[in-house]
Amino acid sequence: MADTQWLAEEPPQRHFKTGNGLLVTLYLYGDELDPDTVSAAVGVAADRSRRKGPYQGSTTGRTYLQRHGFWSIDSGIESDDLHEHLKAILDRLPDPGMNLMSLPQVTSGRFDVLVQHPNAGSDTSPHIGFLLEAHEVEALARLGVCFELTFYLAGWYCED
Question: What global pTM score does this model have?
Answer without folding.
Answer: 0.76
